[in-house]
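Hi everyone, sorry if this is the wrong subforum. Our group has a chain we'd like a structural model of before ordering constructs, and none of us has done structure prediction before. Sequence below.
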Amino acid sequence: MRRPAVLPLTAALVFALAAPAHAAATAGPAPALDRAALREAVTVRPGDGASGVVAEVHKDGRTWRGTSGDVVSGKRVSPDAHFRIGSITKPMEAVILLQLSAEGRIDLDDTVQQHLPGLLPEGRFEPITVRQLLNHSSGLPQDFEGAPQTSPDDDIERRLDYLTFDEMIALTLHPEGRPAPGPRFAPGTRQEYNSFGYRVAGKLIEEITGHPFQHEVTTRILRPLGMGETRAAVPGRSTPVPRPYLPGYMPRSSGELVDVNVQGGLPASMTSTTGDLDRFVSGLFDGRLLRPAQAAELFTVPKGADGEPLPYANPSNCNAGPAKGTACYSAGLMYVPLPDGSVLWGKTGSDPGYRAGVFASRDLSRRVVYATGTSSSANGVPAVAQRLALAAFGG
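Answer:
Right subforum, don't worry. Here is the predicted structure as tokens:
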């Protein structure tokens, strides 16, 4: 869906954000976790652009779960609240294609053009490999590239639309009333985060398997890992986030906040909980989903002919740590350096009204899952997430 415009917080909303937080923690002492700092981290503050927070942290065998209440309605938020996970489904798409490669049904060095002839207009796009789709080095255009900016009111109404992979691809590559976009750079020469490449990846999954994406993700990931609280989108319909849910809001042009828990989305759209996303990252890293050769793709950033990580195409991502300015995304994941020099791997995601993330160390001794309901149209990593990571792993 089109990204909403960034709007300032209203005075009334800033006042509402001063509401107190509610936190729930596991019983018993947890010396490895500073529970007071974690509670403070998830407390919504003026300027956060958040309506509420739900979070889960694991460190050296200790667990903490916490929430902040919905500052818009004043209602409590359950630690088991459901929320929309946005692009956290990208690692799931990557897992399915990596599993298909292990089964010999596709090779990561195969091209999109081999498996989906005619999808990418000939003469406009060079051959793009499956691996380049997954590690964001394809150079494909972005979703709806070149489309005019939409209004906040339009974005609120369009959240109810459901678009198939075919529809997303057609609307991006063959737009009406404006020039069709070309490549942003030659495949394999740079990295740039690209959601459109994952629309093509989703189409590829459906073409190879002969099944809808929802079927593949359920049978290959959700069911084997016991992710019973995670729901895939219902084709052709808009659906609510299951209860209990974390409310997420979008502001109309008048400043009125609209609870946007009912949405359509894409075939890969999902709702989940912190517990289920922790099950996902645990199963992803402990070998239950992938064989070693395929799992290695999760922790490998693309490199150029010189053996060095590819340059990153713009400064909006991959802008921290010693590798600043070079590739920080692998096949479905990204890495985040911590102050102590260690690294977390994981993924953030956003849907209208929601921002979420799941990250873990490779040995799973450190894991964090968070979601915020939004109360503004601001983009980027929520301030709550930055505070949470610092409180959990900064010391």
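For your construct planning: The chain has a mean pLDDT of 90. Residues 52 and 70 are 5 Å apart (CA to CA).
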